[in-house]
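STRUCTURE:
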């Protein structure tokens, strides 16, 4: 997640946001092939390898921030769009959400 000029790596804020489903087999195969290639490149350049490395990094090993490959915010909206949609909560909506959460 991008926070200001830093990139943070942590678990999602809520249990609901955690994902336990494995990726499809073709994605797993592609990631395994990429990891094998990255290991080979690291060995050739005498760069230490660990299996907990990030999948996508810059050449110097720093994490790639979401805006590097997309103009959208991480959750799919431009910040201005998000604010226009999500910041206008109505009292009745909040009451209904609270009632649904505490049933």
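SEQUENCE:
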């Amino acid at each position: 997640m991008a926070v200001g000029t830093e990139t943070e790596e942590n678990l999602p804020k809520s249990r609901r946001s955690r994902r336990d489903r494995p990726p499809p087999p073709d994605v797993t195969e592609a990631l395994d092939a990429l990891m094998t290639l990255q290991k080979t490149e690291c060995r050739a350049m005498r760069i230490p390898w660990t299996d907990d490395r990030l999948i996508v990094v810059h050449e110097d090993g720093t994490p790639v921030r979401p805006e590097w490959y997309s103009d959208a915010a991480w959750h799919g909206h431009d910040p201005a769009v998000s604010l226009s949609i999500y910041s206008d909560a109505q009292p009745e909506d909040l009451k209904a959400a609270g009632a649904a959460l505490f049933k």
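REMARK: The chain has a mean pLDDT of 77.
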